[in-house]
Amino acid sequence: MASAAETLKAYLHCARTPSEEALQRIRTQLKKQYGAEVVITVSVEPELISGYVLQVGDQVIDNSAKHMLENITAGTPDLATMQTRAEDYKPAAKASEGGTVISAADGVVDVKGMDKAVYGEIVTFDTGAKGMVESVEPDHLGVMLFDDIEKVGVGTMVTRSGKRAGIPVGDAFLGRVISPLGEPIDGKGPIEAVGYNPIEKQAPGILERQSVDTPLHTGILAIDSMFPIGRGQRELIIGDRQTGKTSIATDAILNQKDTGVLCIYVAIGQKASSIARVAGDLQKHGAMSYTTIVAATASDSAPLQYIAPYAGTALAEYFMSKGKSVLIVYDDLSKHAVAYRAISLLLRRSPGREAYPGDVFYLHSRLLERSCRMSDKLGGGSITALPIVETQAGDVSAYIPTNVISITDGQIFLESALFNAGNRPAVNVGLSVSRVGGAAQTKAMKKANANLRIELAQYKDMESFAQFSSDLDAETRRQLDHGKALTEMLKQPLYQPKSDAEQVVTLVLASHGMLDQLPTAELRAKTSAFVRQFRADVSGTMDKITAAGKLEPDMVDAILNAWKAYAGGDSHAVQ
Asked: Which of 18, 162, 345, 447 has the least CB density, counted as fewest CB within 10 Å?
């Protein structure tokens, strides 16, 4: 019995574009040979140039001129190599498992055939589009498309690649804006990759990790003093829209300049203009040289938005494997969950709470568990994650916020009321927490801010009580003035991160009441001016704090004496 390829050759001969009648005769003949129950698809498209691509059941035989040219020119060979490949080329040399699209909707298709395909495998459609197997059912596969969605329809042929979904990696990706597939989208030309990392990877085990004890300074006084973040930690940034969540992440990236920490900003479902603005801000402040932006815009398909954070993490793992520390920002996981919900509903998975599928918790847990600090035997690299989640009207008890809160090592809650009142960053001290705590702080920082949270909490309670009373005793007024000074001190403009030593000096002044009598409108300006002047102080206190990470009594005295001299003697009245 003749093979499928031989049967096709007998009918095609040398014809470039066989008629529909000829193709029908081919189908009839092949059905006689292989049985009526076998689905047979023959594709002869203009893109093939000439020849044919034949699918019989789950076997695909590519004998097109396009395939021949791709084999001959792969890797940009010289003329001699191309001639050798052309002479050695054998028709119908490629055979791989394939299938046929039986339904398509909004970037998600069902494929019949390809019984050996596995979850997470990349498949290729005969239109040139690529997709990933997302659902494995008994009688069909669910595949989500990454590109050319409008070109893939019922009857489109698809073949296995044998490769897991992944992203090219390499040092050349620093300073670039890329898609979740690793393709440059900043117009700066191709990127030279040195490897290929799968986007889905099992998180490191307990024995491969070490405890989080090295600070990762964000440069934001309110966070570094009260909710410290360590290398390898996962700290959630949560709050309503337009409360400064992205600004905190951007400042944290800016503060990593000259620290050796590499940064990856993953934008999920953001407007292209917003991503361009973030890229412009990072470029303006010299941060793009150590930062990569992985962008899946709001106009991109749900599958691209779904794989974006995994792709960013795969790139971060490349740097971590080289012993480097990485800061990765996911902005934001609320939109990521919405994209996954859209895909799941199209795959006919059962909707649950808020129409999310039952595995939406696993969606984020398997992502964030990959952020850790590796043991010294494995290079000592780390991935520090700052996932962002958007709330509705401050509701932290909604489905996705509670899921991510339970996965992460703490959260920074931004409150709309504080933001609108001018307290920026609008950090709610009561609802924010870092479960790593003092382990990720220098000794100097811990000593300088020992009572900061307690004093702020007391001020908030006393402030609400004092507004109903006009007659306050001296001690109550002192505490109110102190709390007001602390609140003003914690306000910080955008793109002005502070070093650890600058924060320690400011906290020493605040904790000793040096800022209490300053006019509120002048407090931050006077404090910043003093810190800039004190940096050049002959005592070298700030350099000692930076070098040793400790705050000795003589350093405290030096700070207070310098402030008294700056402020005009023992009266502390700023001139």
From this structure: 162
